[in-house]
Amino acid sequence: MIRSLRFRLAIGAVIAIGITLMLIWVALSKAFTEYVVQQYRTEMTVLSDSLTASVAVKDGRLVLAAAPSDPRLNLPGGGRYWELEEDDKVLDRSRSLWDTVIEEAKLLPSAYAPFQTAVGPSGETMLVLAQESTLGEGKDARHFCIYTAFPLSELEAALTGFHDQLRFMLAVTAGLLALAAFVQVATGLAPLGRLRAKVADIRNGRLSRMVDEGPSEVQPLVHEIDLLLEERETAVERARSRASDLAHGLKTPLTVLSQLVERMTPEDAEMALKQIDIIRRRADRQLQAARLGAERMATADIGELTTKLVQVLKPITAEKGLRWHVRAQGDLHVEADPADLAEAIGNVLDNAVKWARTEIRVDAFRTKDKVSIRIADDGPGIPDGDRHAALDRGTHAGGDEGGGSGLGLAITADIMRAYDASLELSRAAAGGLETVMHFPTKGAKRAAVV
Fold it and tell me: Which residues span the domain enclosing 100?
């Protein structure tokens, strides 16, 4: 099935133009052929009538009182011929026939009625018109037949010339109609292109609603898109509010439970505190997910953003003596909210600061269709089997001894999924953890955050 509307319209236009021009060819060809044949029939009839008017009886024999004055009739093979015949006997004929005799028995039907065909003086085919007449009345009536003829090639030459011109005219017409169809299709589909651009602007956060403009045929679609956007915003806001209410509602009971745990035995208290901590982490995670789901896409420069984050962290890492190696190559813009990217990259940098021993390397670069940032440290790293778990809810990148909520890499993974990006964890060349984030440069889409 052809999915392209432009291609469908083009095929329809080609078929319609082809059928129309074919019908025009047939109609004009038939009309012109009939016209030319009628012209020759008229000419031959006039010649035959003039000959009939000159027939007279002399000494009991039919003769012509006066021959037509057309010089072509007096030249051998002159192109116009006549013959007078009575009772299958040739009484007289034009000099142009030379020694050729038109015999009724040898006449054959032709494609150009009412003419018949015969062989001319030079061997060419002639078109012959037979016209029977009667001279006198009653017993004295004399019945005779006059044949008039002309070369078939003369008629066909006229038709060929017309068909050549008609063919050229229809070819030019086909080209002009095809160009007009192309312009019509391009003009007719232009509103869809503008509609697509507006949808892209909405997806990228540059617009909030479609504008009711364009042809009336597109207006219902624009109106439905606006309604869909309004319903989506309402649903997202409602879900966000519920998630926020749930998360905030859990905090107060958790605080009370933490105070009550102090009255338990040390073993029970430790177990209860761990469960409370897990619930608190999940509540924090839901708050983060609710905020992320409500953000709109904008444009952010990863290189500039990373440089600013590193500048903020450098004073903190000065006491540990950490060395920073930062490199950003060229234009590194992506379609994403700067706050979300700052949190995603900041979480990874915080993790690197926590575990690095002597240095941290940060590289931001562009590939064919992605912008990537690589953050590597020389800390203990994460074992191969534990890297996937490091992205799970509430799991610490370096075990429980490092403290913290264990949400950093998990939140980063959520943000990456929300922007159709990818996150890779591997062993760095210096032995620690290497985190690589890949962001699409164009057509980034928002994914559902769960």
Answer: 5-159
